Each structure stands twice: as structure tokens, then as C-alpha cells.
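Quick question, first post here. What does this chain look like in 3D?
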Amino acid sequence: MNRNQLIHNLKKGSVQVTFKKIDGDMRKMLCTLQEDVIPKITGKKKENKDVLAVWDLGKNAWRSFRIDSVKGVKLV
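> Answer (accepted):
Ran it through. C-alpha cells below.
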């Protein structure tokens, strides 16, 4: 799944993303980019095409991961 497909799915609902963290550990994160779930975004940040910031539903906080570290994506 490419970056645009992943963003599209995240905006539609919840997605479980499995990725390799920088320290080498594997992590599964239930996340979303649904406008009615995420907090209001203020300001504008420079976009990094290699990293995707998402709302972590388990931690109720913004988290990010490198696109090239994604090992699996499951629509929930």
C-alpha cells in the first residue's frame, strides 16, 4: 500500500499499522486520520513525505512512523 492509499484509508476509518520502530522493535498501532476523531490541527507544519503523522487511538496522541518501515496494514 502506498502513502496516498494509506492516507485515504486512515481518513475513512481506523487502520492497524504494523511497522518497525527505529530501535528495531515491531509495533502495532491502531490509528486514524478521521476528521471527527482527531483534534483540531492548528498551524501548518512542513510535510515530510517519508514520515506519516497519525492519531494513535490507543494512546490518544499524535504518533508518527516512517512509510518505508510499514510491514502490514489492516483495515479495522
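The mean pLDDT is 94.
Residues 3-12 form the longest helix (10 residues).
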